[in-house]
């Protein structure tokens, strides 16, 4: 009798482990795809977003350049998504857009601040030069 009770417990344990593998493994696999897509999207966005151009847009455009950086929607390259799972594509696209948008806006803000400081410095130098030429006469 004791042996049948032990066999029943072993059967229950095997059934629980099998059910876990059947239902949980696809979820874990999707999570891995999601994380891989997210990491690849972030790396691709950092590599392909031209920070120098956005720095110039902010420097020359000022507050309008910053607005442009917020409005322009970066799109991931479609070639990187061919043959990938829907989870990977969704994670890659979201991460790419978020990271590229962050680079755009950060560089535009930096350019705007640098451009404003340069403008103020040039204005102060021009004012000082004009003041020195008028005071000598």
Order of helices and strands: HHHH
Number of helices: 4
Rg, rounded, reads 29 Å
Percent in strands: under 5%
Major sheet attributes: none
Helix content: over 70%
Distance between the termini: 119 Å
Outline, from the CA principal axes? rod-shaped
Low-confidence stretches: none
Overall structural class, as computed from helix and strand content, comes to: mainly alpha
Query: What is the tally of beta strands?
Result: 0
Number of domains: 1
Instruction: Round the mean pLDDT to the nearest integer and report it.
Output: 84
Key descriptive features of the protein:
137 residues, mainly alpha, 0% strand
Structure description:
This protein is mainly α and 137 residues long. It has one domain. Helices cover 85% and strands 0% of the residues. The protein is built from four helices and no strands. The model has no long low-confidence stretch (mean pLDDT 84).
């Amino acid at each position: 009798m004791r042996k049948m009770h032990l066999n029943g417990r072993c059967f229950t344990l095997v059934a629980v482990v099998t059910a876990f593998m059947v239902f949980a493994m696809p979820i874990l696999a999707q999570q891995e795809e999601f994380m891989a897509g997210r990491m690849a999207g972030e790396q691709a966005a950092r590599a392909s977003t031209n920070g120098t151009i956005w720095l110039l847009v902010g420097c020359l455009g000022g507050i309008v350049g910053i607005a442009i950086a917020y409005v322009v929607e970066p799109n991931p390259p479609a070639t990187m998504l061919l043959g990938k799972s829907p989870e990977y594509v969704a994670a890659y696209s979201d991460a790419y857009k978020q990271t590229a948008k962050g680079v755009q806006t950060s560089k535009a803000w930096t350019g705007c601040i640098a451009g404003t400081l340069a403008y103020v410095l040039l204005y102060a130098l021009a004012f000082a030069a004009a003041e020195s030429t008028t005071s000598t006469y």
